[in-house]
Design a protein that fits this description.
This protein has 342 residues and is α/β, with parallel strands linked by helices. It has two domains: 104 residues, Four Helix Bundle (Hemerythrin (Met), subunit A), CATH 1.20.120; 190 residues, 3-Layer(aba) Sandwich (Rossmann fold), CATH 3.40.50.10470. It contains eleven helices and ten strands. β1, α6 and β2 form a beta-alpha-beta unit. The radius of gyration is 20 Å and the shape is globular. 51% of the residues are buried. Bound molecules: ribulose-1,5-diphosphate. The site of ribulose-1,5-diphosphate has 18 residues, from α2, α6 and β6.
Length: 342
């Protein structure tokens, strides 16, 4: 089989995901789906087999960018599984249609999830956030639109300070924001009514894989009796974890933590920079999705309903797959390869 290199927009999107110009699980999924659409538009394939091969190559290229957010393989799966036809033009239009339906579903899911999450927030509540999650912000935004006044204590989220993005967006929607260093979280938990975070993957056992620091925050919050709410559309459900696969935790560049010169001046040290961690289900009170809220232990029921017992891996020529070949460490999850309604 001839291997064609992905088109420019696919390579650019992949590069932006790797460098985190495009970041956050839902945003990555939407960008990857749109990039597949560009590939479909630009593929000058002579026959259906060549078109399909080009699409799979593009999907693999996108897949290999970041390993932890299952929204990425779920998005790729959603689009590729709906690729059908025995002519190039039919295949192309099926991909373009599914890219559009995927992005529409994504927006609708976030709005629906926001309404469910907003019901948990009362007028006058204070929320503590970690990292930047569009799903979490959707809950706050909907609550504000319902007329509730909310305050937020926003963890800066080292090393990349995604908390600054959260702070800016919350200010824009009229929330009072207090920014804190990550290590101050426990000190402020007494002032907080909810911890509200997003997820990159949710494993079949209800474990939540999210930005590094989430698990420590959840343990402290449980110690203080503060409820921990995870906002995660079903795109974040990791179907491969149903069959025992684990979720790979991305290790990022050491230079995100410390400049080379400073490091050399310290001496012979190891530097580790895991981007995500795993919060066990016992520390999570509710997983808020567009299908309602779930205790983490019951998320597997929803996962089975959405994915069945298996996970197709249509980007692989001979099917090693986007999810199946990833080793997960402590847990795994999430996606949107949904078998489901149109
Ligand atoms: C982002 C992160 C977010 C989830 C959910 O990590 O951990 O909490 O991706 O985001 P990074 P969303 O900045 O390393 O991508 O709710 O927007 O999908």
């Amino acid at each position: 089989m001839t291997s064609v290199s992905p088109c420019e927009p696919v390579r650019e999107t992949a590069s932006d995901i790797s460098s985190m110009e495009i970041r956050g699980a839902a945003t990555i999924a939407a960008a990857a789906a749109r990039a597949l659409g560009e590939q479909a538009r630009r593929t000058d394939a002579a026959d259906p087999a060549a078109f399909e091969a080009a699409m799979r190559t593009a999907a693999r290229h996108l897949y290999e960018t970041r390993p932890t957010a299952v929204s990425l393989p779920n998005a790729l799966r959603y689009v590729l599984r709906r690729m059908e036809g025995n002519r190039v033009e039919t295949l192309r239009s099926s991909v373009l249609d599914s890219v559009e339906s995927f992005t529409t579903r994504l927006d609708r899911a976030q709005a629906d999830l926001g309404a469910v999450g907003a019901n948990r927030l009362r007028d006058g509540d204070t929320v503590m956030t970690h990292c930047h999650s569009t799903d979490a912000i959707a809950c706050i935004q909907t609550a504000v639109e319902q007329g509730k006044t909310l305050s937020a204590i926003v963890k800066e989220t080292r090393p990349r300070n995604q908390g600054h993005i959260t702070a800016r967006e919350l200010v824009e929607i009229g929330v009072d924001v207090t920014l804190i260093v990550d290590s101050a979280a426990r000190r402020y938990l007494n002032d907080v009514d909810h911890v509200l975070v997003g997820a990159d993957s949710i494993a079949a056992d209800g474990s939540v894989i999210n930005k590094i620091g989430t698990s420590g925050l959840a343990v402290s919050a449980r110690d203080r009796g503060t409820p921990i709410m995870v906002a995660a559309q079903t795109l974040k459900l990791h179907p491969a974890t149903m069959t025992g696969h684990t979720v790979e935790i991305e290790q990022r560049e050491e230079t995100e933590l410390i400049e080379t010169e400073t490091r050399q001046s310290i001496g012979d040290i190891e530097v580790r920079n895991p981007a995500f961690d795993v919060t066990p289900p016992r520390y999570v009170d509710a997983i808020v999705t567009e299908r309602g809220q779930f205790p983490p232990e019951s998320i597997v029921v929803l996962m089975r309903e959405l994915f069945g017992d298996g996970v197709a891996e249509p980007w692989a020529d001979d099917d090693p797959g986007l999810n199946g070949d990833r080793t997960v460490h402590d847990s795994d999850t999430a996606s949107d390869g949904h078998r489901e309604e149109p």
